[in-house]
Amino acid sequence: MAGGMVPMVGAGKQYAGRLTQYVVFACIVAASSGIIFGYDLGVSGGVTSMDDFLSKFFPSVYRNEKAADESAEGSDNYCRYNDQILQLFTSSLYLAGLCATFFASYSTRNWGRRPTIIIGGVSFLLGSILNGAAQDIAMLIIGRILLGIGVGFANQAAPLYISEMAPANYRGGLNICFQSATTIGILGANLINYFTGKIDRWGWRLSLGLAAVPAFTLTLGALFLPETPNSLMERGQLAKGRKNLERIRGVKNVDMEYEDLVEASRISNAVQHPFRNLLLRKHRPQLVMAIFIPMFQQLTGNNAITFYAPVLFKSIGFGDNAALYSAVIVGSVKVLGTWLSLVTVDRWGRKILFYEGGIQMILCQVTSHLKP
Question: Membrane-crossing residues (predicted)?
Fold first, then answer.
């Protein structure tokens, strides 16, 4: 089409518009919340393998680790890290994120996607500062809880924000930007842990505190983001919603998409009990897939391996540097896989990537259990 415009398909229709720089900027800022989540996911396993961190906050784990290293064969690697306070440190982020999700659901719908992202960014920033400056377990746990609240708010609003801002024919690729940012955050954390692990006494502070950099970037960038047209229309701000739609599409002729969004918001607002309606028989296929896809993805152990990668490598006999370096390799493979998905998702479709990923994981699981 003339002027660099491309057709955008929605429910069998072609919408006028193009992928504007404004949309790219907005999606990059929103996706940066994935960097913070990935960073927190990758950094924790690294610092819990650092002797300076363990000796300060978890001395019993540090003693068990050293005793196991010095003992004869047959020592139990599990007992090295069997500490309830250490488990509280690692799990508090996810528990807080789970609880915060319910509040984020309300704020995303009633206040908008942008304010919810800002709340998540501020919480990320405060949690990073507390963790980097931690003097005792209490500061460490409170910082982790604040990070979890940031995960609950930002990670719920950001993917939705990207979906609503993106043109239909770029939606898959732009949505994967969030996952790509997550893997970049994991890789960044592993690289930083590798270098800070060589700094005596305060290297772990640098690892935990550097999460404040992307948190500040997200918070500052979110202040300049527009609200999505969908959110504005859901809350009755039709004129402002149309103005934002024209701005993000780069054209004035947005009548067709605008009318569809108005109709969609009318139908959405007419629903009296959205959560109860999810249990209706006609919604069962979507509900089942929405629950089981992320559930089985988690049950593969992918996030657990990512989180504990340095600890796992150290437990099987790798040295400190080798364990952190091996975690860097794992993070690099994640980034590569996500980038491949980024360039193929809108070309091949979502189901093909599900098939490929599932078959690949099955083959790797079978291969890893074969005896030499």
Answer: 21-39, 85-104, 140-162, 174-196, 202-225, 323-345
For residue 100, is it within any domain? yes
Q: Would you state the structure tokens that stand for residue 56, as one six-digit string?
A: 């300060």
What are the pLDDT digits (tens) for 115-131?
A: 999 999 999 999 999 99
CATH number of the domain bearing residue 62: 1.20.1250.20
Gyration radius (Cα) of the chain, Å: 23
Distance in angstroms (rounded) separating the CA atoms of residues 316 and 314: 6
Q: How many domains does the chain have?
A: 1
- CB neighbours of 358 closer than 8 A, spacing ≥ 6? none
pTM here is 0.79
The half-sphere exposure of 221 on its side-chain side, counting CA atoms within 13 A, is 21
Per residue in 44-87, pLDDT (tens digit) is: 878 887 888 888 898 887 787 776 655 545 455 555 666 788 88
> Would you say residue 140 lies in a domain?
yes
Dihedrals φ, ψ of 10, to 5°?
-145, 115
Please count the helices (runs of H) and the strands (runs of E) in the chain: 18, 2
Query: What would the DSSP string read from start to end of 132-185?
Result: HT--SHHHHHHHHHHHHHHHHHHHHHHHHHHHHHS-GGGHHHHHHHHHHHHHHH
pLDDT band at 372 (very low <50, low <70, confident <90, very high): low
